Amino acid sequence: MNKLAEHLKTLKNSGEKALIPFITAGDPNLAVTEKLMFVLAENGADVIELGVPFSDPLADGPVLQLAAKRALASGTTPESILTMVARFCEKSDTPVVLLVYYNQVYRRGVESFCREAGQAGVTGLVVPDLPLEEAAILDAAAERAGIINICFLAPTTSDERLKQTCKKARGFIYCVTVTGVTGKQTAMDPQLAAMLDQARKYTDIPLALGFRISDPRQARVAAKYGDCVIVGSALVEKIAGAEGDAKYARAGSFVCSLKEAMKEGSNHEFH
User: Fold this and answer.
1) Could you tell me the residue ranges of all domains in the chain?
2) Tens of pLDDT along 179-194?
3) E strands within the chain?
4) Would you say 207 and 12 are in contact if contact means Cβ atoms under 8 Å apart?
5) Is the pLDDT of residue 5 over 60?
6) Which residues are catalytic?
7) Domain 3-264 of CATH type 3.40.30.10
8) Across-strand partners of 149?
């Protein structure tokens, strides 16, 4: 079984909620990213989502757009990211998932990209700009490489599309908590709980809540709804706001606080 799917299944069966922190690879450079990945793993990250910087990140808000810009300016490429991931995976069992825009996969060649990602140790791909109906080629190439193309659901997803998504999903389903781009949020979409309940009728795949979850309180509530919690912009912003080695301490402390909050659970809604 794929390492990502196996790890999340084990956590779910034990009743533990998974924390998936996101950082942009190469922000501010790959040496920092590599060290940050170990810090995240040591402080409660169950899976690490690593963003491949792109010049036109349509699903990302201002914080992640700036992170991608800094990463590209430092010379970060998909090839250099995979080399770094391979080093990380030699020393850590924490599954690594890449968030990558489809143009980057297509330009490299779908088969080649998936094969090289799998060889580096990548366990899954999150491709936010590839619709379900157009994902067959990537799905097949990813499966041959031993990795998973992650499916998405959103509060606006129709019932029929939800059924199709749940039927084909593996690893986890990325459940977008709001309509819009990544960033911070002050309220949870009231349709979210209904969407999650509906999805659970058709699949037992872990449901991961992402987009605009930015502090321990929100992570605690998200863990009450879903099986996994994805936190990106808030973490990236905290890292960017620190200098030198303070980046690692700040990242580790924040991730630890998120994981602890998720263990507590909550019956309160977002306000």
Assistant:
1) 3-264
2) 544 444 444 566 788 8
3) 18-24, 48-51, 96-99, 122-126, 148-149, 151-153, 173-176, 207-210, 228-231
4) no
5) yes
6) 49, 60
7) no
8) 125
